[in-house]
Write a structure and sequence with these properties.
The chain is an alpha/beta fold. Helix content is 43%, strand content 15%. A seven-stranded parallel sheet has the order 3-2-4-1-5-6-7, with helices on both faces. Helix 3 packs parallel to helix 4 and helix 5 packs parallel to helix 7.
Amino acid sequence: MSATTKKILVVNSKGGSGKTTIATNLAVAFANQGLKVSLLDCDRQASCLHWAEERNAQAPKVTTVANYHSADKLTAQIDHELDHGTDVIVMDVTGRHTDAALFEAALKICDLVLIPMLSSSLDIKAGERFVADLMTHRVMRATPKPMGVIYNRANTSSANQQRLETLLRCLDVPVIAELRDSTVYANAAEKGAGIMEMRENAAASKEYSAWRDIMLWIDRRTAVRRELPRPIQAGRKTTGSNPKQTRVS
């Protein structure tokens, strides 16, 4: 079993937010680093599976598996991936209102959470509710996970987006990247590719810095989580510890 496998949850309860765009491009970015990557499609629309069907057999391999049937099957698949040395697991999951058990299982399993959001008024309002619900979920309260927002088809002049950014700062949830409103993402999806593979495409090259930011954030946050001490159980006494020291959770 691999103790260093990155388990990344891409989730939003709002349809059309760009979950599949983020999940597939993330999987491709890791695969092009020579890592063993599995993409678990936990959305009944099966968009990741459709993307995988178009992928060139000569491209770096991204193993794509349907896992929207049950929480137990998702857990079993994760165990299988860990036992077979998978380096990165990316999960494309809908919100808990679609399948609460599956959502909760993914939340328990993951190391960190990526939340794609569009910048329209309706999407921003839905995103605010989703982030608030996620932060108060019992799994996140018991075992907090790093969370980051990715603006998809960003519009930085939007008053709603600026209001959301203020809220996120108060909640200590970072906006880690902004992706342009570019047809290059749709073109990549049609080919079963990721934009990091479209090296001669000028529109794709404009997005590289955003994806580097995403990858660096993931690497830093997963490295920090591996170094954190295990939470002290309630009522358990410690010896030789500094009572003034703040416990990291």
